[in-house]
Amino acid sequence: MMIKKVIFISAGPGDPDLITVKALNHLKKSEIVLVDRLVSPEIIKKYSNYKRKFIFVGKNSTRRTSFSQNRINEILIDYALKGKYVVRLKGGDVSIFSNIMDELVELKKYNIPYEIIPGITSAIGAAAYAGIPLTARGYASSVRFITLHNPDSINFNQWIDFIKTQDTLVFYMCIKKLYEIFDKLTKNKNYFGMNKLVAIIEQATTPMQRVYTSHLYNCKNLIKEKNNFMSPSLVIVGKIVVLHHYFKWFFNSNVLDKKNYFE
After folding, report:
1. Which domains does the chain have, with CATH numbers?
2. What's the half-sphere exposure (Cβ side, CA atoms, 13 Å) at 70?
3. DSSP assignment of 66-89, as one string?
4. 146-171 pLDDT tens trace
5. Does 161 participate in catalysis according to the annotation?
6. pTM, rounded to two decimals
7. pLDDT tens-digit readout, 89-135
8. Active site residue: 15, 36, 93, 167, which one?
9. Is-catalytic flag, 167?
10. Annotated catalytic residue: which of 28, 59, 82, 189?
């Protein structure tokens, strides 16, 4: 039996039209698709048929069974060794905060070939749909992507660096810890100026997108006022956030009853 490549493809941040042509070509030929939680339901609906089996392996999903990484690895290996055309469909870009290394290590153990198809990570999609260029002359010459699901993993000097830097910062996986994060950032007010701005972007690139902006020093009040930001949300910090008000083109959802696009 010939073992086919396992194909890792990127679904993009939400808007189904942001998936790449190459990713779609593989999806159309697939037999087994392991799908993460943050994949547009429109992509799944469009490519679901009797020839293709979708297995929903997203972690912490409220509507589907949550899978451990070990269980995901087992399913991936099992179908690959059976000679199936396996696609691993991940939200955003497959190489940014996606646990891809764990899965690649398992494939290497079994000498299973693979291919990695890049895509649009959430930071790029969210910034574009909010009209915030992540770098721009006179505003920021570099950008950092940071996962903050565990703020305690960041030491004191790193928090000071986050405040002092002129880089644009993008915080992923932080929505449940927002108040804690901004409490740590604003404890050292001597280090930041009035031009340090924050954008919290909810469900970026989807019809449910909303963008909230604030000065850094006032961000805790915004978090208290809004109380519950929808997941996924990410945060952009930096002087460059001011450009949202000049260049926004994708306007906030006017749906009064907030819903999760991915549920």
Report:
1. 6-116 (3.40.1010.10), 122-247 (3.30.950.10)
2. 0
3. ---HHHHHHHHHHHHHTT--EEEE
4. 999 999 999 989 999 998 899 999 99
5. no
6. 0.92
7. 999 999 999 989 999 999 999 999 999 999 999 999 999 999 999 99
8. 36
9. no
10. 59
